[in-house]
Amino acid sequence: MEGGIHTSTDTSAFKECLSLTWRKPYVLRLAFSAGIGGLLFGYDTGVISGALLYIRDDFKSVDRKTVLQESIVSMAVAGAIIGAAVGGWMNDRFGRRRVLLIADFLFFVGAVIMASAPGAALLIVGRIFVGLGVGMASMTSPLYISEASPAKIRGALVSTNGFLITGGQFLSYLINLAFTKAPGTWRWMVGVAGFPALLQFILMLLLPESPRWLYRKGREEAAKVILRKIYPAHEVEQEIQDLKESVEAEIKEEGSSEKMNIIKLLKTKAVRRGLTAGVGLQVFQQFVGINTVMYYSPTIVQLAGFASNRTALLLSLVTAGLNAFGSIVSIYFIDRTGRKKLLIISLTGVVVSLGVLSGVFHETTTHSPMVSRVETSHFSNITCPDYSSALNSGAWDCMTCLKASSPDCGFCSSPTNKLLPGACLISNDTVKDMCHKETRLWYTRGCPSKYGWLALIGLALYIIFFSPGMGSVPWIMNSEIYPLRFRGLCGGIAATANWISNLIVAQSFLSLKEAIGTSWTFLIFGVISVMALLFVIIYVPETKGLPIEEIEKMLEGRALHYKFWEKGNKPHEKSQAT
């Protein structure tokens, strides 16, 4: 791919970007208009985590059935897998601009369907539409920006897409918080997503197609007109010549690659080793639990003992803000620290953070407040039936109460101190209101705990360590680790692996949490993170500062840079086998 898609930048690239503000505002308009696709991607990831709290309140079937909650979250990911797979073909057939317009249309339709859904079934249909749009936009936005950016600042401009993804997640939490008191709550949360989709649709109608795609399709004059708007006069002719040579070379490469099947591809040593590292990083990025945190962070906060939906959303805003900040940190350090060292620092912190979370949730479940017969009898005729009939009711605590299922029960805390013994009552809206009227807190998903703030610290540490390393580096590595002639195919394989892993984690977290508990679930993520750390040390090469040709030579020679703490060797030294 001409120019490639790189998300690492240096200081001069940022200065060049800033100077564009007044020299070439057209270029920034192209980049940020396409980057709204990243914003939509991030917004959808974040908004459902908060909306789900209120969807469960409105639709009791969703509240009772974990599989429905997981489906509402994960069907968008399933749609994104299809959208990304179809989007690759559509990009080549119809162009980047048209695919973004189609993605915006699908996203807008999905937002309208979700906002007006009368039940869980139609809500899931809306999520699939949104997912299709997200899948197309997630791969098309950076591609369009890359092909419509001056070479000197291509990395800096493409990196705006990554920042807008995390910025979209942060925005979604702000929107969620803003509508907690509004009538319809979650309908506004999911419906607002239609506005940026409509905005991007209008902006893309006013912008041109990718000049590279136009040139490839034989529309050379149209491509040259756009390039003259992007590049300074003294550079444009050279860029046109470079584009011509690049397109001719790519057509020649694709002509030979069409004859290659997967088996032949895997027999190519550099490609096979590159795929091992690239696909492995994408799979581990999801299986260390990041989207559990992003999709379910308000739920996790409630599991830590914070009863209010609004409080859960407000505290989850911190994780989204830290995630956005981490994407900026990654841009700064990626070319200074190196990919591999950043990954190892990131995963080490993730392991520690997950250990903290596992320990905190173990304490919250084993040291929850007891159920008091006096407090329970204070409420007439609404005592939890399982508690009333239990032979060992004196041993019941809050967690035992919440596990009762015939019918579901909730814990109403003591009015003086939430950590003191409380009441175990039938769980419904009427009982919840009765509990709140007596200035008590109502718990149905987690129990009061003095360790709740430690869970927030654990979540914050997790994001602080994950975002700059495991959050960004897998995408950067997959844009540079493959030989040029295979980069599109291999990058597609790695991206598909990422979306499928995302789906598995999103679909299984709540069921896993119910089956073995939150503490053990985070412990499993921690063990997987240790495996990821070992994988990075053994299989992932350091590509900092290396041209594509040197990376290919290094993979052919199987250079495994175990001593990641040392300064990088010269390129020719890295290509030797260790």
UniProtKB/TrEMBL annotation:
CDD domains: MFS_HMIT_like. GO terms for molecular function: myo-inositol:proton symporter activity. Keywords: Membrane, Symport, Transmembrane, Transmembrane helix, Transport. Pfam families: Sugar_tr. Residues 30-544 form the Major facilitator superfamily (MFS) profile domain. One of its GO terms (cellular component) is plasma membrane. It is found in: Membrane. Belongs to the major facilitator superfamily. Sugar transporter (TC 2.A.1.1) family. InterPro entries: MFS_dom (IPR020846), MFS_sugar_transport-like (IPR005828), MFS_trans_sf (IPR036259), Myo-inositol_Transporter (IPR050814), Sugar/inositol_transpt (IPR003663), Sugar_transporter_CS (IPR005829). It comes from the Eukaryota. Its main location: membrane. This is Major facilitator superfamily (MFS) profile domain-containing protein. PROSITE patterns: MFS, SUGAR_TRANSPORT_2.
